[in-house]
Amino acid sequence: MAISLTIAEVLFGAFFATSGTNHLLAGKGFATPVVRLGFSRSSRRLIGAAEVTGGIGLTVATWAPVTGIAAAVGLCLLVAASLQYHHWVQDTVMRCVAPTLVTALMLLDAVARLALLLTVPTARVA
Fold it and tell me: I need a labelling partner for 32 at 20 to 30 A (CA). Which of 38, 71, 92, 118 fits?
C-alpha cells in the first residue's frame, strides 16, 4: 500500500504544482478555469501558491508524513472550496465532477497516510 500511495502522492503533487505554477505565471491572455470564473490576478496567485505548496507537500509525504497529511487536507479544502464556487456560479455538472473526485481522493490520501503513520512502528533511540 505504501508504494501505491507514494506513487499517487507524487502524481497528484506534480499535478497541483504544475497547475499552481500556471496560475502563478498566468499572463493577461492565459486561459485557466479561474480566469473564466472571473478571479482577480491576486486571487489567482494566491490559489496558485496554495496549489504549489500543497503539491510540494504531497511530493515529500513519504519522507515527511505529517507534512503530506497537512498538504492533502489543505488541498482537499481548496478543491472543496472550488467545488462550492462552481456551484455558486451555476456551472455545469460536468465541470463539478473533477473537483468532487479530487476532493474525495485527497481525503482518501490523508486517511491512508495517517493510517500508515499510526501503524508503522517507529525506531526507538536508546
Answer: 71
Asked if 59 and 9 count as a contact pair (C-beta separation under 8 A), the reply is: yes
The dihedral built from the CA positions of residue 85, 91, 94 and 95, taken in this order, carries a sign that is negative
- For residue 91, the 8-state DSSP code is -
DSSP state of 31: -
CA-wise closest residue to 33 among 44, 18, 46: 44
- Cα–Cα distance measured from residue 16 to residue 82, given in angstroms and rounded to the nearest whole number: 14
Would you list the domain boundaries of the chain? Answer: 2-118
Residue type, 126: A
Total residue length of the chain: 126
What cell numbers appear for 69 in the block? 497529511
Are 74 and 106 within 8 A, CB to CB?
no
Residue-wise pLDDT tens digits, 22-75: 888 876 555 666 667 777 778 888 988 999 999 999 899 888 888 988 998 898
Query: Is 23 within 8 Å of 34 (Cβ atoms)?
Result: yes
